[in-house]
Amino acid sequence: MREILFGAQIMDSDEWVYGSLVYSSSEKQYYIVEHSGDELSYPVEEETIRQFTGLLDKNKNKIFEDDILQIWHENPYNHKLHKDCLGVVVFKNGLFGYQEINDKYKFVYQIESSDIDFNPNESDYKLFEVIGNIHDNPELLKRSQI
User: Fold this and answer.
1) Which of 3, 72, 104, 117 has a CA between 20 and 30 Å from the CA of residue 55?
2) What is the mean pLDDT of residues 25-54?
3) Dihedral sign computed on CA atoms, order 64, 68, 74, 79
4) What Cα–Cα distance (Å) separates residue 12 from each residue in 22, 31, 48, 51, 100?
5) What distance in Å separates the CA atoms of residue 78 and residue 98, rounded to the nearest whole number?
6) pLDDT confidence of residue 20
7) What is the rounded end-to-end Cα distance, in angstroms, of the chain?
8) If you average pLDDT over residues 88-96, what whole number do you get?
9) Is the pLDDT assigned to residue 75 strictly greater than 80?
10) DSSP letters of 17-81?
């Protein structure tokens, strides 16, 4: 079963926290509850809430919604990897995927379990590398190719 995990920035801070997402209707505020034994909860900035995709990148980092990925492609002739483009992880039509960062910033690929095995030892993970996120690294959105 996929791990359900959210991350967000603590209110009025640049610090990220990870855990369960809770909404207080009386306070009209989202909270992340850390599961570190003390069950600490933090009020978070709503626009920074990101969900874990259930996938890991080539460095075994968790891939979250709004992450910026370096996408690699394998040459079918010599099986060498080369940097191809950057993409932003999105949740669309019930699936996680990425939008390629280019002039049109369009949805070009869906990350599905049929494309990537959920076993972190599989070679498909080497096709993605988290290099930042849209909240901490907006300057990366201006790059179209590497």
Assistant:
1) 104
2) 92
3) negative
4) 18, 13, 12, 20, 30
5) 26
6) 95
7) 35
8) 82
9) no
10) EEEEEEEETTTTEEEEE--SSS--EEEB-GGG-EEEEEEE-TTSPEEETTEEEEEEEE-TTT--E
